Every structure is written in structure tokens, then in C-alpha cells.
């Protein structure tokens, strides 16, 4: 396992992040405590140190399992990230949302479940379209100054909101968001329109969730397997099948699984990217870890890019065009360099 800096910080995280949404058996699925412990052991033994959870995962059980594990292991070895925003109880009208009251309450509850004095990374889980972004940034900065969190990050939020927040934080001397968590995969490339260019501009690390598109990119649906939850239409349509077939073909060429190809594609896109790999079985994690030994060639990347290409829309596609531009002063025509 190699280590990378998380965004514009000195925080060193492993190339893969372990997603723990499945730690717990609520809802009739997931890993029990012993299996979850074994998964974290396997991850740590491979050099993994970056764990991703949230206050609502398995009704708080995910955090509780991690907390019990941490109480018997080196807490400082791990980079522990959790989230706040979504409703985790019914006690009051402010038990959800991005507001400061919910932020402070949620962090205190997460610290108790995780049996720790501090969080390494706190994500805003999803934008509520209500709370002023300055309220969010000031609250996060206060938590950092109090030593309850080390870094702030954000998930599932429009690019313009994140950009406004980081710009305001820079102006005010507050801590900025260092990571952006969004759905991103060969089947879901729409973040390339605004979110990823924004992240690159601010030096943020992208931490994709569902980098395997809910398992679709492993080829399991083409083989007739069914997912735990009915997949969204864009993961089962003709376009996703066409993309998956190319993933499977490249996997056959280099003797690895389709999951390795799909994961590695996210890691070789020319920007800081640490995909989140979930696991409810040790064998699933072991297989995902083999991605670290895979390197896709320029030709393979090109084939994957071409089969999964999306229309960026305006102004993205406009910027990418080869255009002839009229010089308004002399009437000359200048070739505009194609840029990406």
C-alpha cells in the first residue's frame, strides 16, 4: 500500500479507503462484529489506514463496531472519517441537516460511539439547500480549533456551493474542505462536468463512492446475478452493459478481475483520487486489494474513456471544440487550440 496526501494537507492516507457502510446486520444484510473486525485487520495488515463511516450507517452500529475495534488497536494509526447531516434520531426537528446545532450534536454522538476523543475527517454528508455555507464552515473551523476534528470535507454537494465555501474559508482564515466525496465510476462520469474540475482547482482529493457502480462493473448483472437492492436504471441499461463488456474484455487481457480494472481507472485519471471500497466479507476486501498491483496502459485507458464518454454540455464541450475564431480587429482567423 502506498500513501498519498489528502487534498491540500499533510495527512497521509492509503491508496484505497475502506467503506464501512455494511458493518452491522440491521436491515437483514451486512457484516457482524467479528467479520467486521476481520475485515479491518485485513485492511490494516495490507497497509490500509483510511476508514470511512457515517453517523447513520446501520443506525449507528458501524461507528460502534469501529469504536470497539479502535479501543483495542492503535487509534493514531488510522485516519477515521465520519459524516453528519442525515437524520439519526427523532428527538428534535434539528436532528438532521447541515446546521450548526445538528453538527455539534452529531459529532458528540459520533465521538461516543467511536470511543475516541477526535475525528480525523468530518464530512458534511449531503447538502440540505437550507443552511448558509458560512454557518457550516465556521462550525467546522470551531470543531477543528477545539481539537474534536482534524480536517473538514464535504460530500454530495453542488460544485458552486463547495467553491463558495472554500473561497470564503480562505478569505476568513477558516479551515477549508480538503476532500470531496461523490459518486464516480465508469458508469457515472457526470462529476467531470463541474465537481472534479472544481476539486482539482482547490487541490481537493476526490473519494468516490460506488466506484464499481453498485457491482455493475464487476459484470455480475451480465451474468444474471441480482444485487442486494434493485439497481438504478443507469446501472442496468444498454450503455452500462456496453461499458461493462469493455471492462471485462480488458480484465481478461491482463488476467485480473473486472473490479480491478474499474477501480484502477478511477485511480489513473490524472487527479488526486482515493476510491472507497466497501466489503462485508474478508474475501471481497482481499480481491479489491489486488487492484494495487494493476496498471492500465494508455491504450486500455483510452478504450475505457471512449466507451464511457459523456457529453459535458456547455461550456465543457464548447471548450473542447476545435474552433475557428474571428479576430475582431484584423479580420484574421486564429486556430483555437483544443484544450481539455
TrEMBL record:
One of its GO terms (molecular function) is oxidoreductase activity. One of its GO terms (cellular component) is cytosol. Residues 15-308 form the NADP-dependent oxidoreductase domain. Keywords: Oxidoreductase. This is NADP-dependent oxidoreductase domain-containing protein. It comes from Mucilaginibacter polytrichastri.
Amino acid at each position: 500500500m502506498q500513501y498519498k496526501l489528502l487534498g491540500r494537507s499533510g495527512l497521509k492516507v492509503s491508496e484505497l479507503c475502506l467503506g464501512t457502510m455494511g458493518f452491522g446486520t440491521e436491515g437483514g444484510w451486512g457484516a457482524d462484529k467479528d467479520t467486521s473486525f476481520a475485515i479491518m485487520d485485513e485492511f490494516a495488515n495490507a497497509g490500509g489506514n483510511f476508514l470511512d463511516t457515517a453517523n447513520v450507517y446501520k443506525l449507528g452500529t458501524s461507528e460502534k463496531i469501529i469504536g470497539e475495534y479502535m479501543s483495542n488497536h492503535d487509534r493514531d494509526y488510522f485516519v477515521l472519517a465520519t459524516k453528519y447531516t442525515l437524520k439519526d434520531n427523532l428527538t428534535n426537528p434539528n436532528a438532521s441537516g447541515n446546521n450548526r446545532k445538528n453538527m455539534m450534536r452529531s459529532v458528540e454522538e459520533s465521538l461516543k460511539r467511536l470511543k475516541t476523543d477526535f475525528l480525523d475527517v468530518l464530512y458534511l454528508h449531503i447538502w440540505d439547500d437550507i443552511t448558509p455555507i458560512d454557518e457550516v464552515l465556521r462550525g467546522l473551523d470551531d470543531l477543528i480549533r477545539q481539537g474534536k476534528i482534524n480536517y473538514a470535507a464535504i460530500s454530495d454537494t453542488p460544485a458552486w456551493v463547495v467553491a463558495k465555501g472554500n473561497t470564503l474559508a480562505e478569505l476568513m482564515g477558516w479551515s477549508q474542505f480538503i476532500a470531496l466525496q461523490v459518486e464516480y465510476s465508469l458508469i457515472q462520469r457526470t462529476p467531470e462536468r463541474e465537481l472534479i474540475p472544481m476539486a482539482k482547482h482547490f487541490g481537493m482529493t476526490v473519494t468516490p463512492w460506488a466506484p464499481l457502480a453498485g457491482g455493475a462493473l464487476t459484470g455480475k448483472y451480465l451474468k444474471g446475478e441480482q444485487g442486494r437492492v434493485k439497481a438504478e436504471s443507469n446501472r442496468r441499461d444498454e450503455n452500462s452493459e456496453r461499458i461493462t463488456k469493455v471492462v471485462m474484455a480488458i480484465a481478461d487481457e491482463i488476467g485480473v478481475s473486472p473490479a480491478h480494472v474499474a477501480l484502477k481507472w478511477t485511480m489513473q485519471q490524472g487527479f488526486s483520487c482515493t476510491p472507497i471500497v466497501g466489503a462485508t466479507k474478508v474475501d471481497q476486501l482481499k480481491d479489491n486489494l489486488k487492484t494495487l498491483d494493476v496498471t492500465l496502459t494508455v491504450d486500455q485507458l483510452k478504450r475505457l474513456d471512449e466507451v464511457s464518454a459523456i457529453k459535458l454540455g456547455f461550456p465543457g464541450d464548447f471548450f473542447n471544440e476545435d474552433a475557428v475564431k474571428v479576430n475582431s480587429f484584423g479580420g484574421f482567423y486564429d486556430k483555437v487550440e483544443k484544450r481539455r
